[in-house]
Amino acid sequence: MDVENEAINRGTHSHDGTEVNAAAGHPHARLAQLPAVRTVLDGVLSPELCRELIFVLRSTSTIGYRPHVRSATIHDVATTAPWLLPPLIRARHAVLSAVEDAFGLSLELAVEFSGLMGWARGAMLGWHHDANREYLSQRHLSAVLYLNTQGEDFGAGDFRFKDGPEPLRVAPRVGRLVAYTADRRNVHCVEEVAWGERCTLTCWFSLDPSASEDPPVLQRLCRNLTTWRSLHVLSAQPEKESESRAPEVGLNPGQAVAFNVPVLRHCWWQRYLGPGLPSSMYQLPAGAGEGPVRVDGVDVGGQSGDVDLSGGGKVTSCDAEWTGGAAAEGGSEGAAGGRGTVGGEERGGVGREGDLRLERLRHLGLFVVATAGGMRSECQDGLGTPPRVPRKIPQPVGTTAPPGLDKINSTGSTVTVRLESPRAWFTTVAVAVRPGDAAGDVTSGPAKVPSSHSLGTGVAGTPLADAVGNVCNYGSCSNSGRGGPEESPAWCQEPRDVKTQEVEDEEEDNQLEEGRSGEDVWVGLVDELEAAVEKGTLCQEGVKNIMRSGGNVADNDAAVVRLMPVGGLAGCALVWFPNLSEALLAVQFAAYVRNVDRFRSVMQVKEASKEFSVYAHMRMEELLKDLPKWQSLGFMLSGG
Ligand SMILES: O=C(O)CCC(=O)C(=O)O
Ligand SMILES: [Fe+2]
């Protein structure tokens, strides 16, 4: 079992609501005489911090913890994106202090587990207490901090205590903490989430210092920072022989003082984070996108008719979000293939059956918005969020956004780029990731397909900076509906330089301003592009160009690709990231930093994402600054 998954798995097994061991769950002697065994406190974290934590959750989480739940333990964050640790550490500490205060246990508790959880529609938890296994006997107190608000961000999902003192029911709201002893005096459950995503920071505490999660977290962190530093030194400054040796960094907590913090500060982000999304993106040729849109075999383009992607039967699956044009292309897959149901219920899988990587991407809640003849409708986002906009939006031709568009805010995990178009169609932006890199190994070498459950726990931080200089400029495809290199327009064949691109970006913006196109963002893996070729959404030449731009699969290049609609069905632009972690970070960051979950154009996502390196740098500075403190805190908490 992976180190980073161990803690959460320990949690997993305690959650089936059964008590298997009569000895487990007795109150710890220290907790036997508490004046209260549970408490609810509001305002423990600010809404801003909560929102940031949701971003951290969405950009680093893995699935597999429990059905309909994604999670990012502190181990996951330390592994995937350590620069996101500061908000989590801060929050964890605030929760710890609040719990210690509430129960009169100042400085007595160690954090045994901390993790961010996203409970999607259908997620629930039966009656249980949190120390209902013998091996959980060191788990003494529990705290759940709600990061968002019932009724606004998700439906239902009440926390309930089975019996005992009031309160018996807690409605989650942002900043609210429910804390209770983990023993059998606090049997509780979580009612099923009806829609949206219920986000929490869940912490367990122990009176036993040796149960602290800090040492393994710090160890991982140290290892990662060491890796980055040595990689940086080796590859970025090879001339400095003295620096090119791997640094001597203690891997044990308490030895972090061995870090050369100034060197780390100087080097890590420039080399391994990059400036955000590649700055180059291709425009659609004039006229692209005109023609009918077909959604799951139903011609919706430019015509009237209410297209109900979220349940009207025309799209039987959210596969639309995944395969981009696939749902638009013919739909037999969606229906006959027995794939997932709308709203991301049980998901048999897009592409390979049961592939958790794909399921995780689906779980990101990306979805399709199609515009058709003044009608706008959407495929639900996998979180079951009810659409908050009327089905029909009047579509002012030639303007950028229909009334009410600004108010669309269904789920934070959805980044949808869309515009109304006088000619109905939609374009998809894919954040395509070479699957071999999804594990995020920052060293080059043969690509490895990660084991699905560890997806997202790879080391992010491969050089997007480099990628900007190596953008593959490509566009496709024929208008035959099947794609073909022979018909690829000239602009899709020749690489263009960034300068030209800037001008074109402006033009693109202008065109977007005119409301010419509609675009969605989705995230995919590059191997899915092959499937897209088969489906005719992407032409072979395009894939070849993508591959060419990357050199070989071990290179850390990114490609930006825009496809013109195939036969008027759909188009997509692909932003190719070197690994999944980075792709998710960029897209989720864009949503976070703008506080929206939809963008009007690809440019907006791109622009927002550019701020990522600034943000990450800031947070990394914080981490490096606080690391010694945190180490000693961890040291102290673990009784050293
Ligand atoms: O999310 C909640 O409200 C409670 C979760 C819970 O009971 C648990 O994770 O054990
Ligand atoms: Fe629980």
From TrEMBL:
UniProt enzyme class: oxidoreductase
Ranges of biased composition (kind: Acidic residues): 503-512
GO BP annotations, alphabetical order: collagen metabolic process
PROSITE patterns in the record: FE2OG_OXY
Cofactor field: L-ascorbate; Fe cation
Region of interest called Disordered, as start-end residue ranges on this chain: 1-21, 324-351, 378-410, 478-515
SMART domains per the UniProt record, alphabetical: P4Hc
Gly residues bias: start-end ranges: 327-343
UniProtKB keywords: Dioxygenase, Iron, Metal-binding, Oxidoreductase, Repeat
Keyword Nucleotidyltransferase: no
All copies of domain Fe2OG dioxygenase, residue ranges: 101-207
GO MF, any single term: procollagen-proline 3-dioxygenase activity
E.C. number(s) listed in UniProt: 1.14.11.7
InterPro entries with a match to the protein in the record: Oxoglu/Fe-dep_dioxygenase_dom, P3H, Pro_4_hyd_alph, Pro_4_hyd_alph_FE2OG_OXY
Keyword Metal-binding: yes
Signal peptide region: none
Name of the protein in question: procollagen-proline 3-dioxygenase
Source organism: Volvox reticuliferus
